[in-house]
Amino acid sequence: MLPSENKYLTNVSFDTVIFGFTGEELKILVLEYQNTGLFALPGGYIRRDENLLDAAKKGIMKRTGLKTIHLEQFHTFGKLNRSNPEPSKKIAKGLGYQMPDDHWVLDRFITVGYYSLIDYNQVRPTPNKFSDSINWYDINKLPPLMMDHGEIVQKALEAIRNDLGKKPIGTNLLPKKFTMKELRKVYETILDKKLRRTTFQRKILSMDVLIRHEKLYTGAANKAPYLYSFDKEKIENL
Amino acid sequence: MLPSENKYLTNVSFDTVIFGFTGEELKILVLEYQNTGLFALPGGYIRRDENLLDAAKKGIMKRTGLKTIHLEQFHTFGKLNRSNPEPSKKIAKGLGYQMPDDHWVLDRFITVGYYSLIDYNQVRPTPNKFSDSINWYDINKLPPLMMDHGEIVQKALEAIRNDLGKKPIGTNLLPKKFTMKELRKVYETILDKKLRRTTFQRKILSMDVLIRHEKLYTGAANKAPYLYSFDKEKIENL
DNA sequence: TCTTTATTGTATCAATTTGCTACAATAAGA
DNA sequence: TCTTATTGTAGCAAATTGATACAATAAAGA
Q1: Residue at minimum CA to C1' distance from nucleotide C26
Q2: Residue B95 has pLDDT above 60, yes or no
């Protein structure tokens, strides 16, 4: 079944850039449509009876299996040439649907971009009926994305780098407990540059948003690092 | 004439928060619809054959008489309850039009917010056929705005405060030549807090984006301040 | 058990930036 | 010439950041 017009807003959609961190690399979720070779960001339409943000959350929760999610809106894309009916036609065809030329999903769309930083290990990527795969891709090794989705990813990255200074953003990218090195790696990967180990540690600790736990014995032949977690309460009150 | 559906995108609009600086106060442009007592931000719809950004620019140029304008997108508002057909009905009624209940402008809208900082003295506020006045209002003495336009203004302010640190934002709020005190006033008014005179001066000068010109003799019984202008080239290369 | 090795947590001090105070240099009026 | 209100900048203290050093491990190997 194709989505029916009276249920959804026309000419508006959302797209999401979902970031995960493997410990080494920053990845995002990209889905591939069946029998088309088309890669796209997870996105969707907005039902007439739901908030824009809720629509986006619902979409992402379905694709990730997460029960809660924090989305950050970063930009809305409305260039004339960003819409292109061909991919949608191809997708419908790949699914075996006949799509009339005047179907509303073939019309021009303005799309609202959201990003989210989530714990890579908590996610179960779940394809929907339109896509036959959804997978993590290294931010530096993305497949060619359809329409302007590549540009959307770039804007999301810019936005994150901007927001990184304000609130402790690593909150959701790492498991509950993590080492200082892992946290620094997150920052280094997002900013795409090395940070001074000692200065970073001093800075983060002085922010007073971390709780120190037991040590982590990895078996490596050196001093074991402490584990930390974020102090959600103190972060709220900032 | 009411706007016709086939010319515009449905369910999407834009609204703009246009800031001007009098030398003392930060003001924004607010329009009032004829015979309704409704105050609103300048906004509009997007033609099917134009970019979102161009639509917004065109709208603002009409209302301000400016020939060039820089708009900064800051947020898109898509709450379910933000749309309300009553104001539009009232506006149409005030204009003497009969608006059918299923007219597309009465439908739910998601609106993209843009802000702009412009030279107060260059502007000729120009009402359109739907509004009988468009005027500058002190940011702290706004009339009650319709729908969620008050919230939109707040978000715009937040965005500006955020952007203030990055690029020299006063560029367009002041006339070409200005004194250091005026520039500081702009920052103080936007941030809504006093800044240290000497520290501000040192900081701005060290950024190396100002050109110093002749002195300004105001007739006041004290040392005359220098006039400055922004060095657009150096700002570009930052 | 004693070395060896890699890494972690801090201390320390230099370099830079910011906060604060002081003061000389005016314009114009008295 | 004296007075007054600002302006521009110097100078030093306080806070932040950069860079280096070093003690304290954890585990492997001699």
Answers
A1: B223
A2: yes
Q: Do B108 and A9 touch (CB under 8 A)?
A: yes
CB-CB contact of A73 with B75 (8 Å): yes
Residue whose pair of structure tokens reads 């809720």 in the numeric block: A54
Q: Which residues contact A64 (CB under 8 A, 6 or more apart)?
A: A18, A29, A118, A123, A124, A125, A126
Chain B residues with CB-CB distance to A112 below 8 A: 76, 78, 110
Q: Is the per-residue pLDDT at A141 higher than 80?
A: yes
Per-residue pLDDT of A83-109, as tens digits, reads: 888 888 888 887 788 888 888 888 999
**Structural domains of chain A, count:** 2
CA of A217 to C1' of D28 (A): 15
State which residues form the domain around A144: 5-164
Give the H/E segment covering residue A54.
Answer: helix A52-64
Question: Does some domain include residue A170?
Answer: no
My answer on whether B62 and B33 are in the same domain is yes
Same domain? For B186 and B155 the reply is no
Q: Which of B51, B52, B78 sits opposite A51 (nearest CB)?
A: B78
Helix H, strand E, coil C: the string for B196-216 is CHHHHHHHHHHCCCEEEEEEC
Write out the residues of chain B at the interface with chain A, using a CB-CB cutoff of 8 A: 9-12, 46, 48-53, 73, 75-80, 108, 110, 112
In a domain, B170, yes or no: no
